Structures are given as structure tokens and as C-alpha cells.
Amino acid sequence: MAWNEPGNGGNKDRDPWGQKGKEQGPPDLDEVFKKLTSKFGGGKGGKFSGGANFNKVGVSLVLGVLAVIWVVSGFYTIKEAERGVVLRLGQYSQTVEPGLSWLPTFVDRVIPVDVKSIRSMPAAGSMLTKDENVVDVKMDIQYRVINSREYLFSVTNPDDSLHQAIDSALRFVIGHTTMDDVITTGREVVRQSTRENIESIIGEYHMGIELVDVNFLSARPPEAVKDAFDDAISAQEDEQRYIREAEAYARAIEPTARGQVKRIEQEAQAYQQQIVLKAQGEVARFESLLPRYQLAPEVTRQRLYLETMEAVYSNTTKVVVDTKGTGNMLYLPLDKIMSANADSKPARAANTVAAPQQPAKSNNRYQYPDTNSSNVRPDRFNTGRN
User: Could you give all domains of the chain from N- to C-terminal order, each with its CATH number?
Assistant: First the structure.
């Protein structure tokens, strides 16, 4: 039998779903509040007169606990290598230094940014050079954050923006450089130019980043022409090695050459002094002959002539004999004459002044003996030129 059928004796309250069908609307909040008040208050009929006061104390206690939790949850710590960027309701408020700080929870939010660590970002790819060749380039960029606010808010994604700036700058520099310079002698120029271009882009967009170093790791030609470029690089290395060897040889030989130059200069100065002294001596000799020549010109001329002829003939191996007026057989000791001439040559060579680097030849071919009249034989004046 159903619960609500007429034979049920009209006992509709026994239907467990009967009451539910009568209350189809939302619950009455006032009724719920009254029930809670009755529980914390004096129950039915308001037996306890202090129920309202107890309710206020409980609410205050709950609010106090929540306030303490809210205050405690606002404390945070920024590390030594970091700076804290505080956002208030989603907008930038301030930058916090390292240490313990506090912010209102649910109102402010802090983002720590590492500003001390050196970060690294690689860059690599196949690029077209100025002479329309393809080269594989690898670089490593080291940087750090110097302005945490600009780093977070100047661009949407700072790391991705930096990567694009590096790639753009590197391709620009490689595109304006020949392949030979990129691979061999122009690596430092490429590195420096790439750094300058990256810094220009970073400064233009205010990314809050500072470049620490740009490392040019490698630059390789395609495998198809790698052997030819290796040969070219080897030849250039040999060239540099030969240059260094030549410079080392020059540094080694230069002191010897300087010593030789100094010695030649000293020999030239000594030669100059000897020539001057010899000329002065000859001048003094002729000046001493002048008074005698003025007293007896013919005798002096004859004596000078004989002395000169004696000096000339003493340096030759030819023997001149005057055979007029004599019929006697002459004996010529040729062996003694030759030996005497041979002995006289070293003595004359010792008295000869030598010029630097070569034997010196005196302008005066003759050696004059002492002109003292006591050393001249009287019979010389008996024979003369006819």
C-alpha cells in the first residue's frame, strides 16, 4: 500500500518525502542564524541571558586568529644575490633589498630576481657570409641582470628576447664579413662587433641586462670544403711561424751587427787620426826643408831626387847598373837581394796605415828617409842627372 493512499488513515506525515515536497525554496537565512544563536545562547526559551555576549567573543576570537594568520603569512626573505620586485594589485610598487620584509597578503606579491649570478646563453647556426658562403658558427653569451624591474616588465619574455637579439646581431655581423675572415684572422673582430650590436639592442629595449663576455667558440666551413679551408689555415699558421722565426733570428743577429758597426766606426776614426797625423808630419818635414832649399836649391833638389829614387828602387826586384866607364865584372848576389826585399815588405806593411775593411793605400807612394845631411853619402852628389 502506498504511503499517501486513502486507506492510510490520512497519516500523510509518515511519507518521508512529504515534507520535502512542501519546501521547494532556498533555506531561510534568518532561521539558520536563530538556530546557531540558540545553540551558542541559552537554548530554547533563552535560559541564558549572556548568550549574545558569548557570540560576540567567539566572532572576535575567530577574526583575531585570522588576522594573526594574515599578518604572519606576509613575512618573506630575499636572498643576498636577489632583489625582490613587489607588485601591488598587479602593478609595480617597489624593489626590495635582501633581507626580511613584510607585505600584505592577497594585496601585494613579490617576485625574486637573481642579480648576482652569471648566466649563459648559447647561440649557434648556419649563416651566410658576405661572399655568399655558408659557415657554421657557435658562440656563448654570458650576462647578468642589473635592473630587476626592467628585466621583468620591459619585454614579455626577457630570456627569449635576449636570444633573438643575439641571433640577429650575430647574423648581421657574419653577413658583413667574408668567410676567410670569420674562420681565420677576423674572429676577434666578429666577436667584438657582435658584442657591440647585442649591447645596442639591449640598451634600446631597456632589458635590464649587462653582457659580461662573448665567447667565440667555433666557426667551421661546410664539410664539403672543410679540407681546403684546413689547408689554407695550415698555410697561414706556417706563415706566422716563419715570421716569428725571422724575428727571432733578427733579434739574435742584431747585437752582433751592432758590434761590427761599432768596431768599423772605431777603425775609421783611428784611420782618420793616423792619416791626419801622417799628413801633418809630412807638412812639418817639408817646412823644415824650406830653409835648406832656400840656401842651396840645386843641392836640395838633387838630394830629394836621389832619396826618392832610392825609395822607388828599394821596392822593386829590378837591378839598375851603370856600366859606363868600367870594364870590371859585376857580381850581383841575387839571393841576398831577394831575401832583403822579402824582409823589407813586412816592415813596410807594418808602417802602412790600413783603412777599415780593406788595406789602405797611402797617397804618397814613397818613404822618405831622414834628410839630415850627415846620413847622405858625399859621392851621391858627384853623380846626377845629365
Answer: 75-113 (no CATH), 119-221 (3.30.479.30), 260-320+332-382 (no CATH)
